[in-house]
Amino acid sequence: MRLMLIFSIVLTGVKFFAYLITRSNAILSDALESIINVIAGSFALYSIHYAAKPKDEDHPYGHGKIEYLSAGFEGGLILITGFAIIGKAIYNFFHPQPIENISMGVYLSAFSGLCNYFMGMFLIKKGKKYHSVLMNADGKHLIADTISSGALIIGLLIIHLTGFLWFDNVLAILLGLFILLTGYNITKQSIMGLLDEADNETIGIMIYILNQNRQIKWIDMHNLRVLKYGSYLHVDCHITLPWYLSLEEAHTEVTAVEDLLNKNLEGRVEFFIHADPCLPGSCPICMIEDCKVRQSPFVKKLEWNTVNLLPDKKHSILT
To answer: Is the pLDDT of residue 213 over 90?
Structure first.
């Protein structure tokens, strides 16, 4: 993140230099958004440091939620920038300015666009490796910058070939709308994260792991909930076990579930598992062949999925 912040500062200088020598509103739009990269990058660097702090008495689930706050702050700044860019472009329709040195503007925009692309891909790669919402958001923002730089280059070439200076304002408005869309998506993602929206992708991975490694004593699982705190996951669920297991045996099965998911999810999971005793209605889906207290025959294995694992309800062959 320090490296990204340094790059953002350098590229902001390059873009403003390009604006000074061209006086293009479209290039100014790109430069103004780069200021957001610097401000947001500074807050993001602090947020990554803060999110890495261990749990304490005041923050029993850790400090990872600040990543969503930081992403929301970045998204809000991007939205403000988008509106400012559109307003400036509309103003210049009535107060036009000449454009100069278009070819140099194209070269500098291409250079900054390539830098943003490689930085964005680098951040997304690291975000996936460290499961960082903030790094992913910053990476996607930089990739969006690359797309806007590509559109900017095409627009400048059109202006250079046709001489239609008014197209600079049209291009600035289009870039402003694209920036607004980027800001909206980042802000929406941060708000949904703060509101603990279900992460269906992560839940799907967990369900796949559980189905592939399911033990016969794990009769049923339900009320599965996953909360994200930065790179860590907090999981609540209920597991139905044979009622005749001792407390120690039930604890062994619960620990086996925890170890299974932590092994496959890089130790990022904190579990709160509630063990339920099986009921007569559980017999038709219970795969224990030598159960001496079975009250009805086994009918079929109930495949776990998002439909039957998420509700707070024990399963039977009917549900």
So the answer is: yes
Cβ neighbours of residue 230 under 8 Å, at least 6 residues apart?
51, 62, 63, 64, 65, 66, 67, 131, 132, 133
Residue 204 placed within a domain = yes
Q: At what angle do helices 25-51 and 2-22 cross, to 10 degrees?
A: 170
Reading phi first (left if > 0) and then psi (alpha if -120 to 50, else beta), residue 266 is in left
Q: Are strands 220-229 and 232-241 parallel, antiparallel or unpaired?
A: antiparallel
Q: What pLDDT score does 251 carry?
A: 94
| Tokens standing for residue 19 | 């604006």
Longest dimension (CA), the chain: 90
- Name the residue type at position 269: V
Q: Looking at the 3D structure of the chain, how many domains does it have?
A: 2
Q: Is residue 318 part of a domain?
A: no
Alpha helices in the chain (DSSP H): 2-22, 25-51, 66-94, 102-130, 133-162, 166-194, 200-212, 247-264, 306-309
Cα gap 311→58, rounded to integer Å: 31
Q: Is 31 helix (H, G, I), strand (E, B) or coil?
A: helix
pTM for the structure as a whole: 0.71
Containing domain of residue 148, as a range?
2-194
On whether the CB atoms of residues 145 and 37 are closer than 8 A, the answer is yes
Query: Residue 73: what residue type?
Result: F
Q: Which of 177, 194, 211 is the last residue of a domain?
A: 194
Pairing mode, strands 220-229 and 269-277:
unpaired
**Residue 26 pLDDT > 80:** no
Kindly state whether residues 184 and 79 are assigned to the same domain: yes
Asked if residues 307 and 290 have their Cβ atoms less than 8 Å apart, the reply is: no
